[in-house]
Specification:
heterotrimer; A alpha/beta; B mainly alpha; C alpha+beta; A: alpha/beta; N-terminal domain of TfIIb; 4 domains; 31% helix; globular; C: three-stranded mixed β-sheet; two-stranded antiparallel sheet; 7 helices; 21% helix; binds ligand MGD; binds iron/sulfur cluster; binds molybdenum atom
Chain lengths: 759, 298, 197
């Protein structure tokens, strides 16, 4: 779930008192001195899951990151990406100073500048745009959510916001919003007995990775739950499933609809639920599904009709059961309708607010998210998908500010994105704020060093998986400036003594602080809307407005535990009672969507073929997927890269044999937008018509680790990089064709048609 | 059944070239020493001319050999630990004492030989023989204790090593003797008889060696899976050229033919045969050590 | 406290392993393991023919064997088997001769490229002695590994091992491994990859 809902409440800043850092538990020990390590509980932000983690410090040095056992979602577990956060902070190649371009764009020549220069340049530019009433020419591309950045955006009235976190799952979010009014629901996999997984890979990547993976595998092993996976390749999840059904790419929708037909035809649907809690009748559903026969679905998808029938019956009978929906379903041109089709399976058996089913996300009391209106969702600012669309819409750009976003690498057909960003006529002034000199930053006029998630303050709430709602605190865990040092400082401020004073590495800065300083310099209304000294001041004020938390010790409590569980909000606890009505807030599940109809789309779940015209015989469908070690912050992680440094193109072994291609051969992969050269992995674990490439490889910037180059630095490990001769793989986005689902607007990242040839 | 390893780490080589070289040199040394004692220890007087060269070669080579050990170990300046923290179960511990005792004995033995004190020479010669056998035989045990390495973990290993040590010792003695007689002796006349005798001895030791290698291979190729894999590695795999062609064909069979077919037996062919053996036995060490640890354990 | 002699062991429930590598990475950071060497890793093996193929994940750590051949062969007694079963290496004594590496049937030892001495997984004894679980055990998101005292019948591991059929890797090596597995797939152990050029 993309549910890191940030908070905007509260004004009165409480008097900050001295923090208590060390946890009472002795939870870590130095390997060399055997002395206990200092523990700071905080929140992981390497992926959207927001697990509770403990940072272990030896003196001032961060030495280990492990899971926080008190966190109800991850319960002490952590994943490899989470641990690799250590590499992100301590990376010798991090961007640590603000830089200004010297020489032509993209040449990689920089001059160090001061933050003061940064602030005055930006404040002047923005003020000038506001004065000329041209703030629409200021584009913000945010790759990560930040509440102060959002406030800043609102305060100065930016209209063009490229919201990557919202874009990520456009099709899935649209589909769920259209049916439930919420972009995403919580999957209660831990209590399911039968899980049908369509194109999700919860054993390698999921928006709630550790929490979901641990619950699902425990259900499988301890309670004998069955897991069935549809995927074009054998994902980690498919490997651990009771059965794997290789499916033709983009055809999950029709398989789900055929299953739905079987369930309805055999009288296995939960008619009570459909009558009372959905807006469509069983008879009409039956009528709608009439032409989705298992035989037809089999012909389209390659999944046998008998399998479709049996699985449908099992799904309806072995309750509680749950249909999971992943990027494999949504990241296609037909994604929105496919997601709606699979979701229909859940509604047919009554999977809403039921044990082992889907739940509305729970957050601490009174912070329950509001139901979203589909029309406003579809029209929201996040409809701006990127520079390509801006250019197509002929919108003028004056200044483009990218925060933790790397479109020149991560966009489909990324080379053309890079081309647009590089063009001074399209983008006259490009500012990039990131932890590293990325592919996008290389094109910038000004680069700002961003603090990592381990160097700043934040409060967020990850959707609770089964316990009562939880509030996460993110606090700095590195480079604390001692009080003594603060005293010696010329700009000493008594108030600061009471505040913990952390400083990120070098001159890296939190984006929140940058926004606050810009607002101060812009004065007027902007400054009035952002009346905080710094991010710490801001979260203090947010927290002081939460009544329950205040009674339990407020910020101090949060700081020592890293999280707060809202025990009082019992009402939000998940209840498993089929008799109970849905919370008043929620209306009926809209199997028939009026909003979609109004927008000119089919109001009922339908299957639309992906490949029109039919794919040619010598073509394959290229799917891309996320590896379990890949996250935003692991591109330059030495430990992640040591395990996975290159991505090879998966191809079915028999098919490869027929083409005379052997494991490890180099081949050229060509799509309509470009070609790349990759090595192949011949495998028995992929559908013969698909090929697959993991994303997150083939960086040409970011750092030497990401580029698989051995080098000397303060870290002796960087001279031990041994995979330099193997290379760093390829970036699939160079050949991904940019196309989107006309309904949800999500990108088809998993269905580019390609041809291969041996070289 | 179709299986494929998708991910595994690579493992460091435990021994590698340095140890192959070390084992080779101790073998040469032991072989030369044993030849040297033929005359002085066992009174086979036709070998008397070899006595002095033998002990000199044995000593010099044995001083060089441990240098490869020092290159090999990560903490050479901790070598003294070997004599403080003694573990009698470890072949390396045996070796560290042998590596001290054996050269000392060589020096004493040689000293008396050059002083023409025959009785003492004989005594230290006889003491030296078990030492020489041990100093090389223990390297066989080192490998044999690698219990998961099919190529090493055989009781044949110490014997095989000894036999090949003697071969390389004889071959080297022939070469050194020829060089010494033709460049450093007064009359520059080589004792052909002695050379041919040595050649014959070498030939029969080669037969013994081939027999042992064959025993080893036959058992390997019908034993458990790892052993079969090791046999395949030698016969058809990455090491087959070195093993079949260099070590056994050029290093043993060709010299055997050169040394035993009367029509071929000349001074020159004997020298060629000896060179082939000296090189061949080096590759025997090389193949045993490197092929032995080539196949991953997991 | 229980002053009975301890006997530590590790249990790896492969049914729950999702091959995520968190264990291997936690070990790198906990023990400052340099690049190019590993105390623990997750072997991955593919088996069978499409569409009935399978993939296996096999996390590997040192077995801290009851009869550790690596200790037997160490010429300077740097390998030490503690009474509680943990096998460790005295870093001040090791001369880096690599003999233990040659003799261990599991390939779990390495020479630290910076320190030039042998190292391996020793079940994080610095943590265990402080009453903590090994880093990899704690990290694992799905709780695959259980660590504890087999002599304590109430310990989680003793209970699990009493209940379940457990296996060890290569029991025929006679080293009496103390890292036990549930659901060990023989073909995952046996599949081998020849060194790449
Ligand atoms: N490790 C890791 N975890 C992450 C992230 C990360 O980068 N790394 N990122 C987070 C983010 S931003 C996101 S959006 C989520 C994404 O989470 P997911 O969307 O679940 O992940 P993907 O790897 O994109 O796709 C899942 C699977 O879909 C399969 N697939 C492709 N095409 C088809 C198809 O047509 N049909 C079917 N049935 N399957 C198909 C792929 O083979 C893949 O195994 O993960 C989050 N978690
Ligand atoms: N072919 C293909 N392309 C895809 C996808 C696919 O499945 N297939 N998936 C798409 C999806 S779902 C996503 S979410 C996008 C991801 O695309 P983007 O969001 O553009 O992501 P990244 O390049 O992963 O990371 C952005 C930047 O964040 C910085 N960063 C990482 N961690 C931190 C931190 O803690 N603090 C700070 N301050 N900075 C940090 C990194 O340096 C990085 O440069 O890619 C998309 N692209
Ligand atoms: S699942 Fe995501 S949030 Fe949790 S530890 Fe892993 S990277 Fe961090
Ligand atoms: S697994 Fe190897 S290193 Fe570990 S104790 Fe056993 S023999 Fe020794
Ligand atoms: S490398 Fe160290 S621990 Fe291993 S056998 Fe040699 S001295 Fe012992
Ligand atoms: S027990 Fe400790 S040393 Fe062993 S693999 Fe786990 S983390 Fe590494
Ligand atoms: S951390 Fe756990 S689930 Fe992940 S690879 Fe290791 S043992 Fe398997
Ligand atoms: Mo994403």
């Amino acid at each position: 779930m993309k549910t890191s809902i940030a908070w905007f409440a509260g004004t009165a800043a409480g008097l900050a008192s001295r923090q208590r850092l060390a946890s009472a538990r002795k939870a870590g020990v130095s390997r060399t001195s055997l002395k206990p390590l200092r523990v700071i509980p905080t929140t992981c932000e390497q992926c959207p899951a927001g697990c509770g983690i403990n940072a272990y410090l030896n003196g001032e040095r961060l030495v280990q990151l492990l899971g926080n056992p008190d966190h109800p979602n991850n319960k002490g577990g952590i994943c490899a990406k989470g641990i690799a956060g250590l590499n992100l902070v301590n990376d010798p190649e991090r961007l640590l100073y603000p830089l200004k371009r010297r020489g032509p764009r993209g040449d990689g020549q920089w001059t160090k500048i001061t933050w003061d220069e940064v602030y005055s340049t930006l404040a002047t530019r923005v003020k000038e745009l506001i004065r000329r009433d041209k703030i629409s020419e200021f584009v913000i591309d945010k790759g990560h959510d930040d509440p102060l950045l959002d406030r800043f955006i609102t305060a100065i009235g930016v209209t063009h916001v490229i919201d990557r976190p919202a874009m990520k799952n456009f099709n899935r979010s649209t589909a769920f919003t259209s049916m439930t009014g919420f972009p995403s629901l919580v999957e209660d996999v831990g209590r399911s007995r039968f899980v049908l997984n369509f194109g999700a890979n919860p054993y390698a990547n999921h928006d709630q990775f550790v929490g979901i993976a641990s619950r699902l595998i425990h259900a499988q092993v301890e309670s004998g739950a069955r897991l069935i996976t549809f995927d074009v390749r054998m994902s980690e999840t498919a490997a651990k499933s009771d059965a794997w059904y290789p499916i033709k790419a983009g055809t999950d929708g029709i398989v789900a609809l055929a299953m739905a037909k079987v369930i309805v035809a055999k009288g296995l649907a939960n008619s009570d639920f459909i009558d009372r809690k959905t807006n469509y009748s069983l008879a009409m559903i039956k009528n709608h599904l009439s032409h989705y026969t298992p035989e037809k679905a089999a012909k389209v998808s390659g999944v046998r009709a008998t399998d479709i029938q049996n699985l449908a019956v099992d799904f309806a009978r072995q309750r509680p059961s749950l249909a999971l929906i992943g990027g494999g379903v949504s990241d296609h041109k037909n994604g929105t309708q496919s997601v709606r089709s699979v979701a229909l399976l859940n509604w047919l058996v009554g999977n809403l607010e039921e044990e082992g089913g889907l739940f509305y996300p729970r957050f601490p009391s009174s912070l329950q998210p509001k139901k979203v209106d589909l029309n406003s969702w579809l029209n929201s600012a996040s409809n701006i998908k990127g520079i390509t669309e801006l250019k197509e819409a002929k919108r003028r750009i004056n200044t483009y500010f990218a925060y933790l976003s790397n479109p020149a690498y991560a966009d489909p057909d990324c080379d053309s994105t890079a081309g647009l960003l590089k063009d001074e006529k399209t983008v006259p002034f490009l500012v990039v704020m990131d932890t590293h000199l990325t592919e996008t930053a290389r094109m910038a006029d000004m680069v700002l060093p961003a603090a990592t998630y381990l160097e700043g303050w934040g409060v967020s709430s990850a959707a609770s998986l089964d316990e009562v709602p939880v509030l996460n605190l993110r606090q700095p865990v590195v480079s604390m400036i001692s009080a003594a040092k603060a005293l010696r400082s010329p700009t000493f401020d008594v108030g600061k003594l009471l505040e913990p004073k952390f400083q990120p590495k070098g001159q890296a800065e939190e984006v929140g602080n940058v926004c606050l300083e810009l607002a101060r310099r812009m004065r007027g209304n902007t400054a009035k809307n952002l009346p905080y000294k710094n991010t710490y001041d801001y979260i203090t004020s947010v927290i002081s407005s939460i009544p329950g938390l205040k009674m339990e010790g407020g910020l101090n409590n949060l700081k020592s535990k890293g999280l707060w569980i809202d025990k009082a909000s019992k009402s939000a606890r998940y209840r498993y009672s089929s008799k109970k009505e849905l919370p008043a807030l929620h209306q009926k599940v809209e199997i028939y969507s009026n909003a979609l109809k109004q927008n000119g789309h089919s109001p009922l779940p339908e299957y639309e073929p992906l490949t029109t015209p039919e794919k040619r015989k010598d073509e394959f469908i290229l799917t891309t997927f996320k590896s379990n070690l890949w996250a935003k912050g692991t591109a330059n992680s030495k430990w992640a890269r040591e395990i996975l440094h290159e991505n090879r193109l998966w191809i079915n072994k028999d098919v490869a044999q027929k083409l005379g291609i052997k494991n490890g051969d180099r081949i050229r992969v060509t799509s309509s937008v470009g070609s790349l050269i990759s090595r192949v992995l011949t495998t028995q674990r992929i559908h013969p018509e698909s090929v697959a490439l993991a994303e997150g490889f083939g960086h040409s910037e970011v750092g030497n680790v990401a580029k698989a180059k051995r080098f000397r630095s303060d870290d002796p490990d960087t001279n031990l990089i041994w995979w330099d001769k193997k290379g760093n793989g390829v970036n699939p986005n160079k050949i991904i064709v940019r196309k989107e689902d006309p309904i949800g607007g999500g990108l088809g990242l998993k269905d580019t048609r390609i041809r291969i040839e041996k070289i | 059944m179709d299986t494929q390893v998708l991910y595994n780490i690579f493992h460091q080589d435990a021994f590698g070239f340095n140890i192959a070289m070390y084992i080779y040199l101790t073998g040469v040394s032991a072989g030369s020493f044993i030849l040297s004692t033929l005359a002085y220890g066992f009174g086979l007087s036709q070998y008397k001319p070899l006595g002095k060269i033998g002990v000199v070669v044995a000593t010099i080579v044995l001083v060089i050999a441990p240098l490869f050990l020092l290159f090999h170990v990560g903490m050479p300046y901790r070598a003294w630990h070997l004599f403080i923290y003694i573990n009698l179960a470890s072949p390396i511990t045996w070796g560290s004492f042998l590596l001290i005792l054996y050269p000392i004995n060589c020096i004493i033995y040689g000293y008396f030989m050059f002083k023409e004190k025959m009785k003492l020479t004989r005594i230290f010669g006889l003491i030296g023989i078990p030492l020489a056998i041990s100093v090389h035989g223990y390297t066989g045990f080192i490998l044999a204790f690698g219990k998961a390495r099919a190529l090493w973990n055989t009781a044949l290993m110490p014997i095989l090593f000894l036999v090949s040590a003697v071969i390389s010792g004889i071959a080297l003695m022939i070469l050194v003797f020829v060089i010494k007689e033709s460049y450093f002796s007064k009359d520059k006349k080589i004792d052909r008889e002695l050379i041919f005798n040595l050649g014959k001895l070498l030939a029969w030791m080669i037969v013994l060696d081939l027999f042992l290698v064959a025993c080893d291979l036959i058992v390997l190729s019908i034993s458990q899976a790892d052993a079969q894999a090791a046999a395949r590695l030698l016969l058809r795999g990455k090491f087959s050229f070195l093993f079949l062609v260099v070590e056994n064909l050029l290093g043993k069979i060709v010299p055997f033919i050169l040394l035993t077919v009367p029509r071929l037996r000349t001074m020159a062919t004997t020298i060629v045969a000896s060179i082939l053996v000296v090189v061949g036995i080096f590759f025997m060490r090389y193949v045993v050590v490197l092929a032995g640890e080539f196949l991953p354990l997991l | 406290m229980n002053n009975k002699k301890k006997r530590y062991a590790m249990l790896v429930d492969l049914r729950k392993c999702i091959g995520c590598n968190a264990c291997a990475m936690a070990c790198k950071s906990e023990n400052d393991v340099p690049l190019s060497v590993w105390r623990s890793w997750v072997k991955k093996v593919e088996k069978g023919q499409y569409p009935d193929s399978k993939e296996f994940f096999l996390p590997i750590v040192c077995n801290n064997c009851d009869k550790p051949i690596c200790v037997t062969v160490c010429p300077v007694n740097a390998g030490i088997k503690r009474p509680d079963g943990i096998v460790y290496i005295d870093p001040h004594r090791c001369i880096g001769c690599r003999y233990c590496i040659a003799s261990c049937p599991y390939g779990v030892r390495y020479i630290n490229p910076r320190k030039k001495i042998a190292e391996k997984c020793y079940w994080c004894h610095h943590r265990v002695d402080a009453g903590l679980k090994p880093a990899c055990v704690l990290a694992c998101p799905t709780g695959v590994m259980t660590f504890g005292d087999l002599n304590d019948p109430r310990s989680e591991i003793a209970k699990a091992i009493a209940k379940k059929a457990v296996q060890t890797i290569k029991p025929d090596m006679g080293t009496d491994p103390q890292t036990f597995y549930i659901g060990l797939e023989q073909s995952a152990v046996e599949a081998k990859k020849i060194k790449e050029e």
